[in-house]
Design goal:
The complex is a heterodimer. By secondary structure, chain A is of the alpha/beta class. Chain A has helices spanning about 35-45, 65-70, 85-95, 110-125, 150-155, 170-190, 200-205, 245-265, 285-300, 320-325, 340-350, 370-384; strands spanning about 5-10, 25, 30-35, 50-55, 80, 100-105, 130-135, 165, 190-200, 205-210, 270, 280, 305-310, 310-315, 330-335, 355-360. Chain A is globular and about 75 Å long. Chain B is built from 6 helices and 7 strands, in the order βαβββαββααααβ. Chain B has a 7-stranded mixed beta sheet, with helices on both faces. In chain B, α1 (about 20-35) crosses α5. The chains are: A alpha/beta, B alpha/beta.
Amino acid sequence: MRPSTETISSSSEGANAGAESDTAVAVPRGTRILMRGNEALAQAAIDAGCRAFFGYPITPQNQVPDYFARHMPKVGGVFLQAESEVAAINMVYGAAAAGARVMTASSSPGISLKQEGISYLAQSELPCVIVNIMRGGSGLGNIAPAQADYFQSVKGGGHGDYRTLVLAPWSVQELYGLTREAFEMADRYRNPVLVVGDALLGQMMEPIVVPEEVVDPASLPRKRWATDGAKGRHRNIVNSLYIKASDLEEVNLRINARYEEAAKREVRVAEERLEDAEFALVAYGTAARVAVTATEEAREEGLRVGLLRPISLYPFPAGEIASLADRVKAILVAELSLGQFVEDVRLAVAGRCPVHLLGRSGGVVITPREVVEALRRLVDETRG
Amino acid sequence: MSGGPMYHEILIAGFGGQGVVLAGNLLASAALAEGREVVWAPSYGPEMRGGPVHCTIIVSSRRIGSPEVSQADSLLIMDAASLQEFSSRMKPDGLLVLNSSLVKAPPSLDSFSLLEVPANEVAEDLGDARVANVIMLGAFLEIRPVVASDSVVDAVRLHAARSVAGRSREHLLDVNREALARGAALARQTGLRGS
């Protein structure tokens, strides 16, 4: 679609900050460029046909609203900095109800503030994409990389009987690809989709290829349930209030059936060197990047180790992890939190093999060395 | 330099305004242009002009796993506070490039190699105090050519094309090319201390 009107900020800092608007260049497509994670995911939303972003500033995701502020107007979209996170998520509700592809982004404390709105979106069967560039918590915490919002992300987050579909990229390229994918999933399941990164993924620059093909919002099928003007048709109602228990249960069963459908169709995992592995690492996002380096180092030391990386956190790849547990002697989970993700791994493993945890918290990133040392301990214990 | 297998972790640190982030950007852009894998990560937070700032760059011939640099192969230090802060973030046999205009070399060298570069003085000599960062880069690349210095010049050209127009763009290109060359010459003349 009109790449000539879309521009790239040249990855923000340094030589070019501030002067971009005069010398804007089209985002180069089909070729390797350097892009920040936060900028890549924002470009992905635009390329997915998203023309509405509502947000409120918070580090370490501020390049997201910054990018939209500059680029949304050029594609005829809406960027709005709301007065609060709560306001932003409710604007998302409004745009989603009207049938638009819509996004908000924040970081951990801001995502907590949005939870009421996310619950309402889910109950009202509204598609939207929410990005959480996680930082150290709890409370105000800090702005360093963390994965401590795992429970909040995959177990519902707000009140009620719902889930968000959750995707966890591990690179700038995947931040782009999975954010685009998230819009398709949101529409397919009429449900909020959460993309979780962390401070490191959002801030860092990596080579990425932005594809040529983009979604023209005008080409998207009309959402028959949307409140986009009832002239000549029966009026649609978007609501989350069902006074009668049996009515609400019926809606919840319908929503639940979609989660079951998603569990069949949307589970995504990636594997590294598991073919002959005696021991397995299980990790997602940045922790998986650390784990893949550790896998290589451990292999050099003669340990037969592989990595299983969930890309979809909900639906959770329980089947894949269960079958892994049948093949290996033990599993080591590496996460940037103190034992959240490991709970789902243990549920999936269901006692088939020992599951150990290496967790760091508060914004401390695990080093490959720590992982290798934990692996060695695991091997020693298992061989007993 | 492109082509051969390599993996190099670099940490650049100084105070806001010294061009630490830009120096990292230039390295990353040069590495990209040479077909390398690269990860650039900034320090972030309540940054300000004059406040501490650093960034890390990993340049590799193969896929990069962990994006976090815990023990850098090379440390480029622009000021005294940064030496204090980051001397522990270097491999024992790493390379320390020190802006000797602002930092005294540590008395104990342990096992690492030291390259002292009076970057501020040379920059003033070139008539543009802003290029101290690129002088450091030039010196570093002379010892550890993780990217070709020509690729850095190309990266400067790209950045300049986006940020400034007309004659000042030409000046930027010239002075940065000169800064790289002076840094490299200094590295050749003074050589390394330590192992």
